[in-house]
Design a protein that fits this description.
With 362 residues, this protein is mainly alpha-helical. Among the domains are: 115 residues, no CATH class; 70 residues, no CATH class. The chain is 73% helix and 0% strand. It is built from 18 helices and no strands. α8 runs antiparallel to α9, α9 runs parallel beside α11 and α14 runs parallel beside α16. The relative contact order is 0.04.
Length: 362
């Protein structure tokens, strides 16, 4: 009973520890004495030795004595949690002996709870343990069904794990998505926000907040750098990319996503006004316009680059996307017949996926 009365903290010198112990013993003695007196008042009132009015008056006198003890006699209160002291005084004033018994019960339950729980800092740090493996190997091993889902169906994606996996599998998935975030992970993270387990919801919310804060810090730094050198195209391109990527995370609210895309669009246009031949800006602006629904404008912009001889796989991909969204399948097929081989032999996995898809048009 005495242990729970101490506040959480660091080790104290011997003199301070003795004062804390004396304070706890003092408080325990007052608790037991108050309980005995309240029970005596209740007993004498039930037996008829005291009237109800007299018993209430003595109860008020006892409360006055307790408040006098609290203000004048109770030294070194750091040995007892303040909320425990307030609970004792208030519950005794309202409930009499039941208040004292309730305070003792709370103390016992709190002592047992503290034995088997972590402090907030340890609990929060445990949500995101330090990485122990390289990312590629880590992701591959996590999705290995023999290791994670023995005897069950293999999960096709992180979304399947969040929807149907065990509690530990969900935690592992969120940790990995936090460390290796890409926009494809936004859907399973948002799914985890409404998971039935509260710890999964907390982990997902913490992950999203961490990702947003990371992007926001970079965006603010890029905005400041671009403001200090408004004619520096490299800084402007970096600023536009960050706003574009920030909007494309899939984690923002719709209004914030629109604002970031509009700002990225304005900056890309400023870059092209200064350097009409800036291909990265043209490519990203075309991609952004397609995502915003301005497909015809994007098609005109990208077509100009393709006709000028640009053969980058990503540029061709987004130009093909603009044609597809306008249902111009004949031109799309002609484009693939002329430029489809550009994707062959590309080492990057994204380009290889493009090649597999575009083969259907050849």
């Amino acid at each position: 009973m005495m242990t729970d009365l101490a506040t959480a903290g660091t080790r104290l010198p011997a003199a301070a520890g003795d004062k804390r112990l004396d304070c706890r013993l003092h408080f325990a003695a007052v608790l037991l004495l108050t309980l005995a007196m309240e029970l005596l008042l209740l007993y004498t009132m039930v037996k008829g030795a005291l009237s109800v009015g007299t018993a209430l008056l003595l109860h008020v006198f006892l409360l006055g004595a307790l408040f006098f003890w609290w203000h004048k006699l109770f030294h070194h209160p750091q040995g007892v949690m303040r909320r425990t002291l307030y609970l004792f005084l208030f519950s005794t004033a309202v409930l009499g002996p039941l208040g004292v018994v309730g305070t003792l019960l709370v103390i016992v339950l709190h002592a047992g709870y503290r034995r088997f729980t972590l402090c907030f800092e340890e609990w929060y740090a445990g949500l995101f343990p330090e990485p122990q493996q390289r990312s590629a190997k880590e992701l591959a091993e996590f999705l290995d069904t023999r290791k994670h889902l023995e005897g069950a169906a293999a999960p096709d994606s992180f979304h399947d794990i969040i929807a149907n996996g065990s509690l530990q599998q969900k935690r592992d998935a969120i940790i990995l998505m936090s460390k290796h975030f890409c926009p494809d992970f936004s859907r399973p993270l948002r799914r985890a926000l409404v998971d039935e387990d509260s710890s999964i919801r907390v982990m997902a919310a913490s992950t999203i907040a961490r990702i947003e804060n990371g992007f926001l810090k970079k965006v603010i730094q890029a905005d400041r750098a671009a403001a200090s050198a408004p004619d520096d195209v490299e800084l402007l391109l970096r600023q536009a990319k960050l706003h574009d990527d920030y909007a494309f995370t899939g984690l923002l609210e719709p209004d914030r996503e629109v604002l970031n895309r509009q700002k990225a669009r304005q900056i890309y246009r400023r870059i092209l006004e200064r350097q009409p031949g800036n291909r990265p800006a043209a490519l990203r602006l075309g991609r952004l316009l397609i995502r915003m629904g301005a497909v015809q404008e994007a098609e005109a912009l990208l077509k100009e680059r393709v006709q000028s001889g640009a053969k980058e796989p990503e540029l061709l991909f987004w130009y093909a996307e603009s044609l597809y969204r306008q249902n111009r399948y004949r031109e799309l097929r002609e484009l693939m017949q002329d430029c489809g081989p550009v994707f062959d032999g590309e080492p990057e996995r994204a380009h290889q996926r493009m090649a597999d898809v575009l083969q259907a048009w050849l």
